[in-house]
Every structure is written in structure tokens, then in C-alpha cells.
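It is worth pausing here to work through a concrete case rather than discussing structure prediction in the abstract. The textbook approach is simple: state the sequence, then state the predicted structure, then interpret. We follow exactly that order.
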Amino acid sequence: MIELKNHRYLSALLRKPVDVTPVWMMRQAGRYLPEYKVIRAQFSDFLSLCKNIECVCEVTLQPLRRFHLDAAILFSDILTIPDAMGLGLYFDTNKGPCFKNPVTSLNDVKNISIPDPEIDLGYVIDAVKATRKALNGDVPLIGFSGSPWTLATYMVEGGSSKAFTKIKNMMYEDPHALHLLLDKLADSIILYLNAQIRAGAQSLIIFDTWGGVLTYRDYLQFSLYYMHNIVDSLIRENDGYCIPITLFTKGGGQWLEKMAETGCDALGVDWTTEIADARRRVGDKVALQGNMDPSILYAPIQRIEEEVKNILSSFGHGSGHVFNLGHGIHQNISPEHVGACVNAVSCFSRQYHQ
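Step two, the predicted structure:
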């Protein structure tokens, strides 16, 4: 086993002391980097890139060569599980992710099989192994999955949606069908994430991108309930290290207390929630990740540095904070501005850990 050289990210998630606030960024590997675009141009479609282990490893490492980040996140997609379930995932230039065989009925749900991560998703598991080896202990590797609710929205809608009419129709008209789908997704995610841990992932994130479109009661029943079940079923120690689990619900700032009761180690916070308020509400139950608006990276570097200072000051002294964006980097952000943000976190956070 290669010894991990940089423990900041894992330590902060476990609320242990660090010298500076660790930083990484959602979608740090990908479309805003010129070197990524060179590799992407070699593939006719996005999914083919995701299934090329050598290129996935290379793309995952690219931002680490540019920026002093404290973690790597595997380059993949949250829709790998629905694709392995036979829904026919493809990416449309104008529409984004789409499915050839969306879920439209209870019968469709019954016909879905739970994929074997080692076989049906073996390309992801092999990419975890290759990337962990390539990192050589420099920083920890983050594995991830979409939440059951978020994956279900794409599967029922047939792709991206703004109104979520199809899945909400199923939720209110045939909740039994939706719960059966969410059960199958939760079981699939448990197998998938545990396989990622065994392959070398040192921390996990469950991205609940669309949980925020639900009412409070529906969120508890159709989203958080299933994430809680997943957290209860995950491997929490491997290779002598604890495996911290982070839950992130975009637009879920009003439910942080409930999320903190799941037994996870950290919560992602988007930019609509003041991080000082989030810390006050969850206390010492969990660490917090976030929460800069990605659009601030369009601003002049001085403004970016001011925002970094604001967020660090808002969280205050002590560990338990992983600096991040409130969602993924936009594709036309300047890498220079990303670098300025990362450097600002390292420069201005030290005073909060003395």
C-alpha cells in the first residue's frame, strides 16, 4: 500500500486538525481545461471517453498538474448505472444526456436488473484502480454516484428536465412504481460505491443534484430516505483508513439538519446557504464542503480572492471545512481564475487553523 502524502481533505471531512483548509472543485477535471479538450476531440462521443480507462486516468490527473488541489475526483458520469441497466444512454450536443429506453411504467421498473459493478461497470472500477495507482499517494481519490432520486429523474424524464413533470407524475400517481425504482437504484449504488472503495477510492460523494426540486415531505420520502440507506450500507474503512461519506443536495440547504442525521461525515452546501449558518445548524455532527458560486470565477482575480476570504471568514476557525464550489465549474471559465482561487484558499486559510 502506497502511503498517502496529503491528508488534508480526509482529515477535514473527519473534523481533524489541518494546517490550511483543503480545496478541490466539482468538475475540476473536464471541459474548461485546454488539455482536456485535446483528449475529448479523440472520441466521437462522451461515453466512449468515459469507458477508456487510460484517458479517464489522464483526465482525472490533469487539474492536479495545474493546481495545488487536495483531492482528485474520478472522471466519470453519474449516469453510468442507468446505462448499465440497459436504458441506452447517449449524449446529445444540444440536449445533454438522453436515454433511448426511458422508464415509463411499473412494468419497465420490474424489468430493470441491478448491474454487477465488476462486470457491467467494470470500466469504472478499473479506472479507479488505475487512477489510484497513478496518483502514487499524492492526494486521495474521490469516488461518487448520483443519488437514487437524481438518477430516477433522468431515467423517467428520458434526459435533462426543467419542470420534472414526468417523474412527479409518477411520484403522485404511482408512488409504488417510483419506490420500486428507487429501491433498485439504492441497491445498485451500494454495490457500485463499495466496489469503488475496494478498488481504491478513499472518499465517496453522493450527488443529489435534483433533490432541491422536491417539497420537504417528498424530499424525506423519495430522496433522503434512500441516501440514508446507502450510507448505512457502505464500507467505512479500507486499507487502514476511514472512508468519509459526503452527501450533497443542490438546493437542499433547508434540510441540513435532517441530512446530518444520516450518519454521513460531511455535507455539501451550495451558494444559496451561508456557510456560517450551515455550521451553526449542524454543529459538530458533520463537516461541510462548499460553497462558492461557480460564476464568481468569471470575475476579476481580485474579486475571486475577496469571495474566498468571505467564505473562509464565514466558516471561521477550526477544521471541518473543505473549500469547494457550490456546484460544478462552468465550461468557459479561465483556468487562470481557477488557479487564483485555489491559491487564495491556501494563502488566506492558514490563520483559521492556528
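Step three, interpretation. The radius of gyration is 19 Å. The CA atoms of residues 276 and 339 lie 25 Å apart.
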